[in-house]
Design brief:
Layout (H helix, E strand, L loop, with lengths): L1 E5 L6 H12 L3 E3 H10 L3 H12 L5 H12 L8 E4 L5 H13 L6 E6 L2 H9 L1 E4 L5 E3 L18 E2 L6 H15 L1 H8 L3 E5 L4 H12 L1
Parallel strand pairs: 1-3, 1-4, 2-3, 4-8
Antiparallel strand pairs: 5-6, 5-7
Bound molecules: adenosine monophosphate.
C-alpha cells in the first residue's frame, strides 16, 4: 500500500502517519524529518535546504524529488510506504507519477486531512517537540506532566524554529498557494479521501481507518 498524506502544516499528518504505520506495518517517509536530519548533519543538501526551511519556504523541487527517489528504491519499502510532506507542488506530484510508473508501483490513496486556518495557527504555535526522542506535545491540548520535559524520555521540549508565529503564517500561505492545488490534482484522479481533522487523535484515526476500508 502506498499512501500520500496531504493537508496543511500542523493538521496531524505526523501523528496519524505514525498510527497508520503501526496499524498497516509499513514505514513512513517524512520529508521534513529527512531534511532536518540533513541540516543537523550539515550535508550539502542540508546546507542548501536550511535557509528555505527557516524562512518557511519550500525547498527546490529538484532537491526533494532526488531525495524521494533514492528513498523509495531503498530498504524496507517493499510492502509500501506512507508519504508525509511529499508531494507538495504539482511539479513534485507529476515527478512522483513518473517515478511510480518507472518502478511499476501504484499509488493506493491520498488522504487529505483538513482543518480551518485558525486551528492550524493554534496547533502549530503551541507545538513542542522533544529534542531527544521527537515526541510531540502541545502546551494546551496535550501538555507534558512537567512543563518543558518529555514524559517519555525526560528530554527537553523545544519549539521548532519554523513554528514561530511569523513563519507559521508564511508556511500557511505557501500551503494555500502552492500545495492546496494538489487536492484537485488527486481528486481528478479519483485518489482523494477527505478526512475532517478536527477532534481527538483517536477520532481522526478512526475516520481514516473507516475510509481506507
Ligand atoms: P514539515 O516538517 O513537513 O512542515 O517541513 C518543514 C520544511 O521542510 C518545509 O517548510 C519546507 O521548507 C521543507 N519541505 C518539506 N517537505 C518538502 C517538500 N516536499 N518540498 C519542498 N520543501 C519541503
Amino acid at each position: 500500500m502506498i499512501v500520500v498524506l496531504l493537508g496543511p502544516p500542523g493538521v496531524g499528518k505526523g501523528t496519524q502517519g505514525e498510527l497508520m504505520a503501526r496499524r498497516f506495518g509499513i514505514p513512513r517517509i517524512v520529508t521534513g524529518d529527512m531534511l532536518r536530519e540533513e541540516v543537523r548533519e550539515s550535508t550539502s543538501l542540508g546546507r542548501e535546504a536550511s535557509s528555505y526551511m527557516s524562512r518557511g519556504e519550500l525547498v527546490p523541487d529538484s532537491l526533494i524529488i532526488g531525495m524521494i527517489e533514492k528513498r523509495i528504491v531503498g530498504d524496507g519499502v517493499r510492502k509500501g510506504f506512507i508519504l508525509d510532506g511529499f508531494p507538495r507542488t504539482v511539479v513534485q506530484a507529476e515527478a512522483f507519477d513518473r517515478m511510480l510508473d518507472k518502478y511499476g508501483l501504484v499509488l493506493s490513496r491520498v488522504i487529505f486531512i483538513n482543518v480551518p486556518d485558525d486551528d492550524v495557527i493554534r496547533r502549530l504555535s503551541g507545538r513542542r517537540i522533544c529534542e531527544k526522542c521527537g515526541a510531540v506535545y502541545h502546551v494546551v491540548f496535550d501538555p507534558p506532566s512537567v512543563q518543558g520535559v518529555c514524559d517519555k524520555c525526560g528530554g527537553n521540549l523545544l519549539q521548532r524554529k519554523d513554528d514561530r508565529e511569523e513563519t507559521i503564517l508564511k508556511r500557511l500561505k505557501v500551503y494555500n498557494e502552492i500545495t492546496a492545488p494538489l487536492v484537485a490534482y488527486y481528486r481528478d484522479r479519483n485518489l482523494l479521501l477527505e478526512i475532517d481533522g478536527s477532534g481527538s487523535i483517536e477520532e481522526v484515526f478512526n475516520r481514516i481507518v473507516k475510509e481506507i476500508k
